[in-house]
Every structure is written in structure tokens, then in C-alpha cells.
UniProtKB/TrEMBL annotation:
This is L-ascorbate oxidase. Dimer. NCBIfam families: ascorbase. Its cofactor is Cu cation. PROSITE patterns: MULTICOPPER_OXIDASE1, MULTICOPPER_OXIDASE2.
Length: 580
């Protein structure tokens, strides 16, 4: 008996020692997972706004499947191109692709396009929690419906600086009835034809086009059918009294939007994967490529439903508002709210949009302090030009065009003939250029030259807006940087003053983002570290503007990039090298 007690006592001591050891050692709750997806991309006839047209789908869906993951997970997407007459590539918007620049999904920059019938494997790690997107990055396919959401949660046991009961995602989009081919031909022809206003606005892939307008009185019901369940308003069901995190993203081809929920305030808590010092809005302004998280509380009269609406801002558009329903359980989700949908803000109220941009600061406790100074300053003047009779968008009077051999491959393999070795200018004629006048810009050129950045240096980017070819007109441009986040140091009206405006930079708590607007006749100042080896696009996220040349490419640390997979090759100087 004594021996048994002694033995049990030793076991208890061992268990106690093990318990104390485990309590002192940090043991991860769950190891990072591999999340495997198999997608088929193809055209299908769909009626997202009641008008029947060809839509690019993923596994039959548009928007495509939502990628759900935790920080540190590896995502593998096997993408089969069943478009048959088109190439394709998909960009993982907001994912920095650290160590995997070949999976960025930017045709002409990081990979050759995926040809019809081929299957391509994207593999990358989602290294930060937050709200992100994926979308086509070949030609103008994004506006044909090839897009979706990426939602990355914190690892188990970690918490965010805000609380909520449920998590939801909504993608906002604008929608055209013409095909991307028609748009591309119109934009690139000597007889220039602008894409015009979108026919409708979609909320989570659903909208409502008026099939009986005066301009389209004879549409056959097979072409436009208002009773088609495909175009019934999107309904998001909420339980009274609960708080919802609503991840709102814009993937528009052209439009800047306002988003509002009838009778409900929204508290902004996240932007592009970074926590925001919370602030309350009634209208949330979004520019193409931006993502936000807002908190809403279902604290209104539970006996009815409420409108969720989107409106075009920054352009005097003819596009009608987008409508969806905030459905209070147990009301029927198809039950229309009793009130008229709330009117959106004035389309030309620049001040309110600028105020929201200025209000977005990093959350206390989650501030990533920027370097106090930069090693290089690049000022990017956004201009509209005529080059060889073609209407083009340009940066510093240089209009971007893709090379036949992707930059990542050409740089890594030292294929100097693959693109123009002359870098674009770091600025423009600051003294004499009048941003308020219709430009002459007779010296505009087309080039595929790139900016070479010294690895691990700090770079300031100043986006300067100006007048277009039309008198008294300046357009809002959302700029997106691949492979990096940047600090947003400031916004301003008028021409950037290189001597005085930097003194106003926010170096205390600037938000980090990957997409940011430059407002009409204004400037936006950004700072980033060129610390991710590769070749990375930086471009206007308006589909037609990038197609017309509004973008640049940065290269840094190419010698630190690992061996390139042969699957990204097969075009330009790499014909015959491709291995699926």
C-alpha cells in the first residue's frame, strides 16, 4: 500500500510539473492549414441585373466562391481555363505574396496568361488577417464578373480590438451590358468610343435594370426579365439586437460609390487589412479595390426590413442606385422595406469624400510607425493624352503598355530586349504645368519601361491629379499597389508643394493600405518600403484607365527572388518553356 501511494505521488508530481511547463511555454492552438480549391473558369449566361448576358463564372458562380482562411494558412487554387477563346489570370488583391511573387496573378508582370484548356496552380500564404479580394487581371475581364472575396481570420485564441456577433461579406460592383471586347475595341480605336455609364449597380452580384425604359422599349423577355429570381435583391438577414461585422469591398470597373444602410450608423474598424481608429459614418465612400469592415447593430424596429443602397459619386452618372435588403429576422427576406430608399450624397461633394479619407487613422495599439524620411521621391502626374491619334491615360506623360514577356521573368533571366530599359521620369514640370487647364501634352509617349528601386529603401509616391482633355474636369483615381502596403501620409487640394506639404505629413498614426484615391484636382502622398523582392504593378484600379495606360511597374531585389516555376512561362521570349 505504501509503495502504491509513493508511486501515485510520483505520477502526480510528474503531471503537476508537466502542467506547469505547458503553462509557461507558448503552444500554438492550431497549426497553419493548407486550403485547397479547384476552380473552373468559364462563360455562362447570367442575368445579375435581369439583363441576360455572358458572364465569366467560377464553378458556375459570380461572384466566385469566398476564400475563408486563418492567418498563416497556405492557399492552393488549381484554376482551369475553360473560356476556350480567351486567356485568363487572377490577382489576389491585398495579398503581398512574400516569397511567391509569381503567384501575384498579374499577366504581363508576374506571369504569362493561362491559355484555354490549361490548369494553373496558384499557391501562397495569407500572412495577415483582414478583408481582401481576388479578380481577373487579364485584359478587361474583371468587369465580366470574374471576382470574389478573401476573408482571413486571426489564429484561434487571438482577438481583435472590437467585438461582434456575426461576420458577413458584401462586394459592390457596377455592371455593363456590353462585352469586354466591345469596350476594349472602342477604347483602343482611332475612332475612340468611351465605355459610358454602367447600366446598373450590383450588391453581392445582384441588381435591377429597368427592362422597360424609354431607351430600350422592345427588349424581349428572354433578354431582360424583371421577374427572373437571379436579379431579386440581395438580402442579408440579421437577428435583432446583434452586432454584425460587415466586410464591404468595391470591385467596380469605373464608379466610385457611396454605401449606406437605411436607419443604421456604421462604425469603420478596418481598411485593407489594417485596424482603424473607429469612427462613425452614415455614408461609406468606396473606390475600386478598397475593402472596409464596418460594425452595425440591428437595433431598429424589428417588425420591418431596411434598404441597403449604393450610389455613384464623383461622376454625374445616369446609373440608378443599387438596392439590397437588410432583413430583420423573422420578416420574409423578399419583403420590401416600407420607406423609399434613402437618397445618396451629392455626386460632386468632394469635401465629404476628402473628409472620410482624412479620418482614416491607424488604431491605437496597432500603429506601424513609418520611417521618418524617404530615400527617393517619385511624383506621378495623372494625365490624359492623345498619342499617335489614340486617347490614352498616362503618368508623367508616359502611357504604360505591357511587354510580351512578363517583367518578373525578363528581369530574373536578364532578358534586356524584352522591355524598354529606359526608366520613366520621377516627376514632371512642377513649375510650369497648370493642373487646372486642359493639357497640351504633345510630348506624350507609350513605353513599357519600369522604375528600378534599391532593395529595402523607403520610397515616397506623390499622386498628383489634374485636368483631363475635357475643360473643367478632373476624375477621381483609385491607385492600387501590388506586393506591398503603404502608409497614407496625407491628402491635399491643388498642386503638391514639395517644400511645404511634406511638413504636414501624418507620421504619428497613418493608416496602411494597398488602395487609395487621389481626389479631383488634388494630391495623395504615400510611403512604402521596397522590401518585397519582385516586379510589382502600381496602377489606377479603374478598368478602362489601366487598359488605356494608367500604371507603372516597380522592380526591387530581383536577385533575391527564388527559382521561377516554369508554369508561369510560355509567352514572349519564353515560348516553349511552359510546363503546367
Amino acid at each position: 500500500m505504501v509503495e502504491l501511494l509513493q508511486r501515485n505521488g510520483c505520477i502526480l508530481k510528474l503531471l503537476l510539473a508537466l502542467f506547469l511547463f505547458l503553462s509557461l511555454v507558448e503552444v500554438p492552438a492550431v497549426e497553419a492549414r493548407i486550403r485547397h480549391y479547384k476552380w473552373e473558369v468559364k462563360y455562362e449566361y447570367k442575368s445579375p441585373d435581369c439583363f441576360k448576358k455572358l458572364v465569366i463564372t467560377i464553378n458556375g458562380r459570380s461572384p466566385g466562391p469566398t476564400i475563408l482562411a486563418q492567418q498563416g494558412d497556405t492557399i492552393i487554387v488549381e484554376l482551369t481555363n475553360s473560356l476556350w477563346t480567351e486567356n485568363v489570370a487572377i490577382h489576389w488583391h491585398g495579398i503581398r505574396q512574400i516569397g511567391t511573387p509569381w503567384s501575384d496573378g498579374t499577366e504581363g508582370v508576374t506571369q504569362c496568361p493561362i491559355v484555354p484548356g490549361d490548369t494553373f496552380k496558384y499557391q501562397f500564404v495569407v500572412d495577415r488577417p483582414g478583408t481582401y479580394l481576388y479578380h481577373a487581371h487579364y485584359g478587361m475581364q474583371r468587369e465580366a464578373g470574374l471576382y470574389g472575396s478573401i476573408r482571413v481570420a486571426l489564429p484561434d485564441g487571438e482577438s481583435e480590438p472590437f467585438s461582434y456577433d456575426f461576420d458577413r461579406s458584401i462586394i459592390l460592383n457596377d455592371w455593363y451590358h456590353k462585352s469586354t471586347y466591345e469596350h476594349a475595341v472602342g477604347l483602343s480605336s482611332l475612332n475612340f468610343s468611351w465605355v459610358g455609364d454602367p447600366q446598373s449597380l450590383l450588391i453581392q452580384g445582384k441588381g435591377r435594370f429597368n427592362c422597360f425604359t424609354l431607351t430600350t422599349p422592345s427588349l424581349d423577355s428572354d433578354v431582360c426579365n424583371a421577374t427572373n429570381p437571379e436579379c431579386s435583391p440581395y438580402a442579408m438577414t440579421v437577428v435583432p439586437g446583434k452586432t454584425y461585422r460587415l466586410r464591404v469591398a468595391s470591385i467596380t470597373a469605373l464608379s466610385a460609390l457611396s454605401f449606406q444602410i437605411e436607419g443604421h450608423n456604421m462604425t469603420v474598424v478596418e481598411a485593407d487589412g489594417h485596424y482603424v481608429e473607429p469612427f462613425v459614418v452614415k455614408n461609406l465612400f468606396l473606390y475600386s479595390g478598397e475593402t472596409y469592415s464596418v460594425l452595425i447593430k440591428a437595433d431598429q424596429d424589428p417588425s420591418r426590413n431596411y434598404w441597403m443602397t449604393t450610389n455613384v459619386v464623383s461622376r454625374n452618372a445616369t446609373t440608378p442606385p443599387g438596392l439590397a435588403i437588410l432583413n430583420y429576422y423573422p420578416n420574409h427576406p423578399r419583403r420590401s422595406p416600407p420607406a423609399v430608399p434613402p437618397a445618396g450624397p451629392a455626386w460632386n461633394n468632394v469635401r465629404s469624400r476628402l473628409d472620410q479619407s482624412l479620418a482614416i487613422k491607424a488604431h491605437q495599439g496597432f500603429i506601424h510607425t513609418p520611417p521618418p524620411t524617404s530615400d527617393r521621391v517619385i511624383v506621378l502626374l495623372n494625365t490624359q493624352n492623345t498619342v499617335n491619334g489614340h486617347v490614352r491615360w498616362s503618368v508623367n506623360n508616359v502611357s504604360f503598355t505591357h511587354p510580351h514577356t512578363p517583367y518578373l521573368i525578363a528581369l530574373k533571366q536578364n532578358l534586356t530586349e524584352a522591355f524598354d530599359q529606359t526608366s520613366p521620369p520621377d516627376g514632371y514640370d512642377f513649375v510650369n504645368y497648370d493642373i487646372y487647364k486642359t493639357p497640351n501634352n504633345t510630348n506624350a509617349t507609350v513605353s513599357n519601361g519600369i522604375y528600378r528601386l534599391q532593395f529595402n529603401t523607403t520610397v515616397d509616391l506623390i499622386l498628383q491629379n489634374a485636368n483631363t482633355r475635357n475643360p473643367n474636369n478632373s476624375e477621381t483615381h483609385p491607385w492600387h499597389l501590388h506586393g506591398h502596403d503603404f502608409w497614407v501620409l496625407g491628402y491635399g487640394e491643388g498642386k503638391f508643394d514639395m517644400f511645404n506639404d511634406p511638413k504636414k505629413y501624418n507620421l504619428v498614426n497613418p493608416i496602411m493600405k494597398n488602395t487609395v484615391p487621389v481626389h479631383r484636382y488634388g494630391w495623395t502622398a504615400l510611403r512604402f518600403r521596397a522590401d518585397n523582392p519582385g516586379a510589382w504593378a502600381f496602377h489606377c484600379h479603374i478598368e478602362s484607365h489601366f487598359f488605356m495606360g494608367m500604371g507603372v511597374v516597380f522592380e526591387s531585389g530581383i536577385d533575391k527572388v527564388g527559382k521561377l516555376p516554369s508554369s508561369i512561362m510560355g509567352c514572349g521570349a519564353t515560348r516553349g518553356v511552359h510546363k503546367p
